Amino acid sequence: MSRLLTWDKILPVLLVLTLVVGTSLDPRFGRGNNLAFVVADIGEIMLIAFAMTLVIMTGEIDLSVASIAALTSCVLGWLVRHGVPIGLAVVLGVAAGVLCGAVNGFLITALGLPSLAVTIGTLALFRGLCWALLGDEPVASYPESWTRLGSGRFPHTYIPYVAPVLIAGAIVFTVLLHFTRSGRWIVAIGQSAEAATFAGIPVARVKTSLFLLSGFMSALAGVVYTLRFASSRPDGAVGYELLVIAAVLFGGVSIFGGAGTMWGVVSAVLFLGALRSLLLLEKVPPNALNIITGGLLLVSVIVPAAVTALQRRRKPTRNKESSCDPDSSARSPQRLPSSSR
Amino acid sequence: MRPRFLGALAAAAAVLLTLTSCADDSGGGGGGTTPGANGGQIKSGLKIAVVPKAVNNPYFDAAFTGAKKACGEIGATCEQLGPTEASGSAQAQFINTVVQQQYDALVISAADANSVVPALKQAKAAGITVVTYDADVADDSARSAMVRPTTSDLVGKSLDKWISDAIGPQGGEIAILSAAATAENQNAWIAVMKQDLANYPQLKLVDTVYGDDDAAKSAEKASALLQSHPNLKGIIAPTTVGIAATAQYLSGSQYKGKVALTGLGLPSQMKAYVKDGTVKTFGLWDPAMLGYLGVYAAANVASKIDIKGGFEAGGKKYTLEDKGLVTVGPPQEFTAQNVDSFTF
Asked: Are A277 and B122 an interchain contact pair (Cβ–Cβ within 8 Å)?
């Protein structure tokens, strides 16, 4: 019963419910124009969340993602300001983001430092580089043919240009996590890095690749952010790391690693974006908005934990059995956050 | 039937007024409600959204009071909606909300001159009149007019004069505590201040720090300034959050009375500090006038009245300067003598 009704499976239902109830409450919410905005508005969060899910699943964390996105944006801006063609500037900006990911990966896996500490450091470091590059002068001299890609839609449709990128990302990352050997490695590392090492999984290599991937996705988000807001600012995307991590955890990924699903995270990001739009349309005061989203996040952590605790109390023997069975935990990556930890 | 008939009558009257306005340049349009400077008439029942940089800010609340007053005069409904933290990306969500809710006009203070431009252009394409107040956008084609409180030139020169008066003829080291390092307004004023300091050879600008319009951070920066520059004689904080935080810090510290403070602040927040001597003179404009004129400019444009030749508000005529700028007037000085008479 509890295996069938896990939080990550409730989320897509919750998303559909929000869309249906929201539209019947207020037709303006369901209009293509508004939904297109919601999709574009969560674009950067979604791109970073794809990679963040994998990082958190291995039991690590990357707090530097927003700073990487901003640094990509600033490198891109700096290059354009100095006359580099924008296409090349985008490529170099993304390269800078990947380099940031490489720095994180090196410090964490080669030197064995904790990712929390390392990425708090690089969060400040990369942001500092943004200020060093652009100072207090934002760059906004982007050609409209490019910025249209960030805020525009395919002609005669409501589909934002960023949508295909998000769909492709969702497919690639779902396959990667749930249908490949690398995905199984990620889950195994998250459940026990030690056991994974003994099983011959190249733990360090997997983690390094994930920080590189996180750097790449953050850089991509940085490019989207730059085009969508037609500008590069050193304080761009400030605080996005927390939005991303909150959405990933809300999506049912365990902060301790080893459990989570990509569809849970995708649904969570869409749900939070849709809910915000609906509440704004219904003129819920902005002060209440933060309280509602914060409360929801807590509920998403508390409810599954409470359910697990209740079940444990009711069937103490069964639970003991299953946790002794070495196969069961490896076979059920969709555990709830904080279960059996 | 009846309302429709009245509506038709009003429309006919409006057309007549527009037609006659060319011949009758005295502008007295006897229609009754609110004649525009060019004789057109502001439609009643307009829906106007006011989007501040951030809510929970007394400055923008005061601006909204003015906006509401204007809306009352022209029979419009207006609403304030905006993010809790001032950023262009957060404002974009509210601009979209305004588009979805089909407002007639949007009066906005841009939290960041560049990043709201795409969203504002989309709003404009959706048929919504866009007017900026307090802080403008980088691309003036994204809005119909910009209501500015005063000119950067007047503000920068006033700030220099106030700090010079407060420190006295002996002069000394001064520093600036600003808002965000990218804040358009503050940077423009600081540029003028630096230039104008040539007229005050006794003053030496030693540092510029940024409190990001966050009270705690601003107080920290003020305290750090005083420690790193022991000879500091004065601080200029051209931000309402920064000056209040600095004043609070100074008034409870050993530097009270020794280090002069001036800048732009709200009379309601600064009252105590001009009375206890921490601050001698500070200034600002009446933010209510920004909201007031913003609504009038927006309502005129939303009513398809051409405001290129200026428009009338509260019995006064305002001209449209280069690039669609509208100026309220010179900054208002506040001292212990007059501070009580201002309510914002």
From this structure: no
Q: Provide the residue count of chain A.
A: 341
Give me the pLDDT at residue B39, please: 56
Side chain identity at residue B10, one-letter code: A
If residue B105 lies in a helix (H) or strand (E), which one and from where to where?
strand B105-108
Domains annotated on chain B, with CATH = 15-149+286-329 (3.40.50.2300), 152-284 (3.40.50.2300)
Summary mean pLDDT of chain A:
89
Pair B55, A286: CB distance under 8 Å: yes
With 0-12 / 13-18 / 19 or more C-beta atoms within 10 angstroms meaning exposed / middle / buried, residue A300 is buried
Contact between residue B223 and residue B249 where contact means Cβ atoms under 8 Å apart: yes
Cα–Cα distance for residue pair A100/A102, rounded to 1 Å: 5
- Answer whether A117's CB lies under 8 Å from A64's CB: no
Whose structure tokens read 């902005």? A286
CA dihedral A188, A191, A197, A198 (to 10 degrees): -100
> pLDDT tens digits, residue range B183-225?
888 999 999 999 999 999 999 999 999 999 999 999 999 999 9
Which chain A residues contact residue B116 at CB under 8 A?
229
- Residue A285: both structure tokens together: 């005061």
Chain A CB contacts of B213 below 8 Å: none
**CB burial readout A94-116, b (16+ within 10 A) else e:** bebbbbbbebbbebbbeeeeebe
| pLDDT score, position A333 | 43
pTM over 0.90: no
* Contact residues for B287 (Cβ-Cβ < 8 A; gap 6+): B59, B60, B62, B63, B66, B134, B149, B344
Contact A41 B96 (CB under 8 A): yes
Q: What are phi and psi of A315, to 5 degrees?
A: -120, 75
**Is A286–B112 a contact, with Cβ atoms under 8 angstroms apart?**
no
* Long-range pairs for B18-23: beta carbons < 8 A, 24 or more residues apart: none
Distances (CA, A) of B43 to B76, B206, B294, B303: 8, 53, 16, 6
How many whole angstroms separate alpha carbon B31 and alpha carbon B10? 9
What phi-psi label fits residue B304: left (phi over 0), alpha (psi between -120 and 50 degrees) or beta? left
Angstrom distance (rounded) from CA A50 to CA A255: 15
Contacts A238 to B, Cβ<8 Å: 87
pLDDT at A223: 97
d(CA B81, CA B50) in angstroms, rounded, equals 6
The runs of H, that is alpha helices, within A192-258 are 193-198, 203-228, 240-250
Listed residue (A57, A322, A49) closest to A189, CA to CA: A57
- Residues β-bridged to residue B130: B106
Closest by CA position to A96, among listed A83, A82, A110, A77 = A77
Across the interface, whether the CB atoms of B96 and A151 are under 8 A apart is answered no
Residues 7-66 in B contacting A (C-alpha not used; CB under 8 Å): 55-56
